[in-house]
Amino acid sequence: MTECVPNENSAEAFQCLSQKISEKNVGVDVFFIIFAATLVFLMQTGFAMLCAGSIRSKNVQNVMLKNLLDACGGAIGFSSFGFALAYGGEDPTTISFIGSKHFFLHGATHLYHKWFFNFSFAATTATIVAGAISERCQMAAYLGYSLLVTGFVYPVVVHSVWSESGFLSAFNDDPLWGSGMIDYAGSGVVHVTGGLTAIIAASISGPRKGRFHNKKTGEILEEPVTFPPHSVSLQVLGTFILWFGWYGFNCGSAKSIVQKPTSVAIAAVSTTLGGSMGCVTSLLTRAILEKKKTGHFTYDLTCAMNGCLAGLVSITGGCAVFEPWSSALVGMIAGWIYLLASHLLVRLRIDDAVDAIPVHLGGGIWGLVATGLFAAPYFVAGAYDKITVPVGGLFFTGDFSLLGIQLVGLLFIIGWTAAIMVPFFLLLDYASFLRVDPLEEEVGLDVSHHRSHAYNIEDPSKAALLKLLDKRRDKDKLFGKQNKFEQIVKKAISDDENRRSVRFHSDVITLE
């Protein structure tokens, strides 16, 4: 920072004051970006809690470690190659496929805040897959996927859409069809990329044992088996943390609180309304369908949480260019899309342990399309400096141009991601590096891979329980009361012996 000392010359004094204000504004914006990035990084906690709560208790440690490795692998991959391929050497006067500078962050000191913000996005993209292929994926395969996505696949998508040199970018001096693709915070860049990778991985790895096929005969079941979540509390906690972090995701994408405070505020409103409507719509629609099927209203909490997340995903692409009413409408339709996509996955026998694919892929595709329909021209002008011609959604302008660009961008993301990830997962599957051994899956990945349980509940000893029983018997005889405690103690002893038997056999399997 250059020190400026004003003198009596009024022109120089004004210039000095302007310089100081500009330097302070840069500091405010850097703080804003880093603060927003920390909120996005907190979403890793939300994903971990949501995934852990949604699966069976015998696999909790494993999915927790994979979420942790997403953050670590994302940092390594995005600092080594990802950031350079995404933003290195960007120039608004040219078009390029990938970046070419700042590998291993060399010479990028002035861009560290930008790296940190985009790293948190890259890690989020990788984490989407963790839940979809839970309870059956090998650790080495998962770490390899995380490095590939954050170091190569995702950065190319970022460069094309968000870099100043991207052929789809709205930040180029000559954007495609006058506007470029509008994906403000990543319905397509983040969620379609992650969701498509998830459906590829889930399809190639296959469903969990007993989900769609009989474990003994291998025959297709008439009704798929539902594996209930082991902790609804963790699911709800994870959902709220994700929603909280989403404000950093969407509001932080303005990049400047000084120059674009209105866009930040619009993004906050849109995020709130989109998530809320997605939740309520999916919950009530599911309840009505259950009423018609069974004659009773039932309210599915998991459905409500995923509907909320689908609404948040769908609002992400146009969060700074939507009117409040259109934000609510987009979120409402996202709730229906989640229900349809979730049902379709089951019909196709694609096993997604946490419904990440309907939420992120379904919600992400709808988010890109919705921006082409509902983007308000006056909000677009405020959010994008390089767009100099009136640009808006079909329902505002009657022009199909923006919707067409959105569809071109969607096809590019799908084509690029599939071209890399399909061969990658097929190769892993062919080499037997993708899926765990069937016996390890049956026992649980916590025991077979980590040699311990996620929940180690200490039970009272049998001797202590029997001693307590004798004491209660003497007391009941003294006061002439009926002894109801004996049945409770006997059941506790029986349950304890059963648990110890399961743990003993699990330990033997681990040692072998």
Task: Give a count of the beta strands, DSSP E runs of length 2 or more.
Answer: 0
Please, what is the oligomeric state? single chain
Beta-sheet strand percentage?
Answer: under 5%
Main β sheet profile: none
Name the helix and strand elements from N-terminus to C-terminus, one letter apiece: HHHHHHHHHHHHHHHHH
Q: How far apart lie the N and C ends? A: 63 Å
Number of helices: 17
Description:
- It is globular, with a radius of gyration of 27 Å.
- By secondary structure, the protein is mainly alpha-helical.
- It is built from 17 helices and no strands.
Keywords, please?
single chain, mainly alpha, 512 residues, disordered C terminus, 17 helices, 0% strand
Topology:
Layout: H1 10-54, H2 60-87, H3 112-132, H4 139-161, H5 187-205, H6 232-251, H7 261-294, H8 301-316, H9 324-347, H10 356-374, H11 377-383, H12 394-397, H13 401-430, H14 438-443, H15 445-450, H16 462-479, H17 485-511
Summed up:
The chain is 68% helix and 0% strand. With 512 residues, the chain is an all-alpha fold. The longest helix is centred in the N-terminal third of the chain and has 45 residues, at 10-54.
